[in-house]
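As a warm-up, study this chain.
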Amino acid sequence: MKHNLLSLLIFFCCAITTQLLSQRVWAQTASASMTLDQLKAIKAIKIANLDKDTYFKSGGFILDRYEERPAYVFTYSDGITRKIYLYKVFTAEDTKDLGLLAIYKNEKSGEVKPFVIPGASADRKAWDAYIDDLKYVGEKEPGLMSTLSFVLSREMANLLAGGAGKADEGGDKKKEEYNFCFAADASVTLADGSTKAISNIQTGDVVLGYNAQSKALVPTQVTGVDTHTGTFELAGVWLAPVNELTADNRNALSAPTRIEATANHPVMTATGRKALGDVQAGDVLYRYDAASQGVSAYKVVRTEKAIRSVKAVYNLVTESGAYLVDETVVLDK
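Now compare it with the structure written out below.
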């Protein structure tokens, strides 16, 4: 009897906190009404690596780790580690806020349970589906309801205390923050070494990709092309070959080459993945070397946060997760 009452209390706590959290979060953002079909599609999304995949697109949706939080980790007296991961969910087409995706993982059994939490303006059927998941899925897994309830309550408390996360002055997360892209005239290197403007690349094209483990260039197929229109600021980074910078004859230095993109687009550096806007002078990036058919190290000699604005931007999704723009290794989102 006590167990049933406790389970019921946790269920109501989770449901009420979710409703309050959704009203608080989505009142601050440009939102769309989640439908039941959208909820089902989001719930079916498979995340390959919950600890590393913090931002990606799938099936017409953008998933972005909520406030860049790491997983909430719980270890009960039974010795089982349980985790909760939170993602904000947006429509890929217009980056409208749909809701939250909470993912529960039991580290011992490997069980993963997704819970799609609709926004406050969502269709009633979407809310009914979420409540059903709490009741018929959540209560079957020991520890799930208490961990989920704690996480949502904690986030609600943070919002009530004034935590607004990464929002602009009006409380809206800027659309540009979700668009990791290049200008239409950015040059993409194809598998045969020729180039084509990114705006002319199509799904199915084969371009030169990059294998981070082998540090080798490999042909890779384009599986998606993202296009966004609006006004976008591009950051610029100027690069010079490392071997030239260490040569004695400095009068023979060639002019630095430039790569530009939205500041948040990731590039491959000697220390790993880094947003272009976070790249600093002295960092090392990698560029295509036609002579060796591989890559050469280039050092950053200059950066600029905003060099020009464009009205349309493009991004590729590739099988290898990396491709070449202006002969520089860049990464998929």
